[in-house]
Amino acid sequence: MAATRRLVNTVAVITINHPPVNALSSSVRHALVEEFGKASKDPTVEAIVLNGSNGKFSAGADIREFGTSAIKTVSLEDINGTIEASQKPVVAAIEGIALGGGLELALACHYRVADIQSRVGLPEVLIGILPAAGGTQRLPRLIGIPAALDVIVRGRHIPATEALNLGIVDEVVQGSAVDAAIQLAQKVIGLPLNKRRLSTLRISSNLNMEDFLDTTVEKTKKQFRGAQAPMACIEAVRASVLLPYHRGVEKERQLFLSLWATGQPQAQQYAFFSEREAAKWSHPSGARWYSEEPKLVRTAAVIGLGTMGRGIVISLSKANIPVIAIEQDAYQLEMGKKAVNSLLEREAEKLKQQGFSPGSKLASVHFTLAFGELQDVDLVIEAVYENMELKKEIFRKLSSVCKSNAFLCTNTSGLNIDEIASVTDRPNQVIGTHFFSPANIMKLLEVVRGQQTSLTTIATAMNLGKILGKVTVLVGNCPLFVGNRMLGPYLEQASYLLEEGCYPETVDRAMEEFGFAMGPFRMMDLAGLDVGWRSRTEKGLTGANVPQGTPARKRLGNRYSPLADLLCESGRFGQKTGKGWYQYEKPGGRTARPDPWVKDFLQKYRKTHQIKQQPSNQEQIVERCVYALANEGFRILEDGIASCPEDIDVIYNNGYGWPKYRGGPMYYASFVGLPKVFNTLEKYYKANADVPSMKPAFLLKKLAAVGGPPIKEWRLQVGKPVNKL
Ligand SMILES: CCCCCCC/C=C/C(=O)SCCNC(=O)CCNC(=O)[C@H](O)C(C)(C)COP(=O)(O)OP(=O)(O)OC[C@H]1O[C@@H](n2cnc3c(N)ncnc32)[C@H](O)[C@@H]1OP(=O)(O)O
Predict the structure, then answer these.
(1) Which of 92, 219, 362, 694 has the smallest C-beta neighbourhood within 10 Å, fewest atoms?
(2) Is the shortest distance between the CB of 100 and ligand 1 below 6 Å?
(3) Which residue range or ranges hold the 3-hydroxyacyl-CoA dehydrogenase C-terminal domain (predicted)?
């Protein structure tokens, strides 16, 4: 049964029963109508409590039903209307989660009791829609416009104690929310319900509402560039101010349908399910996530307390895993310790505000210089800077110090995992964990399997990612793995665009208007131009090791842009030096301003090399950069480095500032149409045979030839993930 009913004295307890998260599917909605109908008619019932099975109230509407006919049967808003109109008091007992339609359902109840561990929220905006079961009309009437906008537009999960302060719930309890709800229901039997029916309340405020909403629109436009859902949320809330409830709900529905027509919800819902699929990893051997048991990580160590190491330590501590943090000398250790402790203090403060004792949620961090102290840890994450020799030296040491079943992880953004593993006594227990900076904030974790990495090691690292709250994707080992490897052709095109007449700000604007959090040049300035320069120097692409007589703009017969090298030779490393592709207010400054020096430099460069000026327009800039990115994604699939296009999209959505409302580079290619992507690349490559990265990938050609099937059918063409490198 999708919902059940039991009687406790004169209180009917109706329980939603649709594992795993009690999504409000069509069958649940039908069952709710039936059970509420029976409870209303039953003369022995004086009050009703609504809860969800397995400690979860509800995760909201069943997202898989959107776009199908199932969503049209029994509207959730109608159910909410019936509940609110009930003559018998209805109390929601919120355990675990009440999200989206789940919270909308609870808002239709006359009272809400929440367990202290629960979270509530209206996260619809994160999947490209708006709360369209009355949520945008009831919540503002309950907590006022500013607070409701914050909840609806940001879509964040709100801890129970904050929900109590905001007035979303009436009571927060430490024990059973259902028992407390039954008690409350018994207490309120016979009391008037009018003031508890949110749809009947008036919104009162001292604010000049129109001005406030207009300012919010402007701020939101800037913050969520190109995303339609946040704007629709504001318009729906505006309707709650201007219109009576029933007309506000009509507006809400109309906005929902307009959003659907933009295609953004479909992309964001694809992104949502792709993230869940990424956790269900597969291995070239045929093993899958369910066939391997992860080992428990009770204690961990982090080597290196630079920016990455600090973030990793915080993540582990927040996941309640005690950490030993190691540095190479007393000074670095002290610096790292100060930084980590100050971040931990902030976390402790947040926990206190949520009503938790920090000691119960944050594990201890022990700082030391002594490797010997690592003998008992279950897992080590090495997070020193990108230098193969240094990493090998550390892994040799770890081999001799750590217990034989300890897992050894390397945090690298592209170095060869097999080479690092080869110096250890346990290559099967070595794995790459590529965190993104700042590691305590960024959601993505690329887990990189080496040739010899065992399935248990993979299962343990993937599970650790989940425990740390990361979106974790398993990838194969190749230079730069998935995300950074795809950046190569993307940044290459960005540089060529400058050579041909664009400026950093033109290219960045085009990519930011496309939706990227940051254009390629601002991104390079942030990351530091010296990092790539060092790597190109090591590879002999620039610097003293370039063979005499090599043309400035060619390497190994292919086109090469030395622009970034020339900037570095002038001491322009990006934000850290206050100058890079842009100028900044000071070294370490963050406000990028176009730099006349760069303009002049580019003009001279083009003249010196007699490059014909053909500045591309916005559409051409986006096409060249994004198609180059996706093309490399197809190669990565061919090579068996990513096991499916969804994994690549998850990486880009969560680690590279790709706009989620465009699904990811592979989804976007599919949305544009693979034949179009193929033809554009083919045309470019025919005219520029010295740019091999733009040669359409074989897999793209194959899929385009059959008309570009939907992305979920690509797997059939890709075959099993076999590392072909
Ligand atoms: C004109 C038409 C009007 C329509 C009006 C509709 C108005 C209401 C709209 C909504 O309610 S939209 C949904 C809003 N809710 C959400 O966005 C919540 C999404 N879910 C989550 O954030 C998380 O899943 C969770 C609930 C916090 C649980 O996280 P956890 O890490 O514990 O588990 P997951 O692996 O994420 O999920 C488990 C399992 O459940 C599936 N799932 C989760 N939520 C939904 C859902 N709302 N609908 C359908 N399926 C859901 C998820 O995909 C996982 O599935 P499997 O991978 O196990 O198959």
Answers:
(1) 219
(2) yes
(3) 481-584, 621-706
